[in-house]
Amino acid sequence: MSSDPRAVLTRPAPAPDVTVAYGPHPDQVADLRRPTGAGPAQRLVIVVHGGFWRAEYDRRHTAPLATALARLGYPVAQIEYRRTGQPGGGWPGTMADILTGVSELPRLTAEAFPGAMAAGPPILIGHSAGGQLALYAAATLPAVVGEVLALAPVANLAEAYRLDLDTGAVAALLGGGPTEVPDRYAACDPRSLPPSKSRTVVMHGVLDQQVPITMSREFVAARRATGGNVHLLELTNCEHFGLIDPESTAWPEVVLALRSLTGTSPVS
Fold it and tell me: How far apart are CA 122 and CA 103, in angstroms?
């Protein structure tokens, strides 16, 4: 394993089996990976990448994670979406893309991989800003989304704005702060949304320097106080990027969390 936690962002990975479009824009697409290995068919896993919603970060940096999940027997869709710094990105395009993609990808994947996907709602795995998008989708599309595994999610956009995470990332996404565009925060900030019915696991590294773990602690505590089915797993020796790196010491914990959500036991 590389000593640089960011190495996973540029690590080569096998090409996807197919790329499908869920809309007309070049970034309204998803890379699909067929499950490999023996075992019963599993439900679709939709991976929502992070990068603080910015155009310079795309789905390619989650290719090692997606490849590893496919080898565990999951059909995987790495959803792309319009991001800040490109036409249509930010509010409301980024949010609209996630809702449309999550709604369409089960059908598109079943058509691409006949017989390789179990019936049932997709599981969402979102990292960082992608964690915010996954939590948003689960709260907004309760009849569509199954379980959620949120990895170091930006679970409180108002707080992320106050902390100025990634130098103005939230303001770029929503077009201002909570007092300037309160309706936008109310519509997509996980902390402001009604509790999701989706069973949710939030994982966060104690050493995270990009998204403070206190955000996940507060989010989970608030959701549990209102009866939400959400659990927090803190990883003592993990930073921000180990959660999406199959070569990291955190990866077995990520797999166990996914297996706990899907009701399957770990493979050897």
Answer: 9
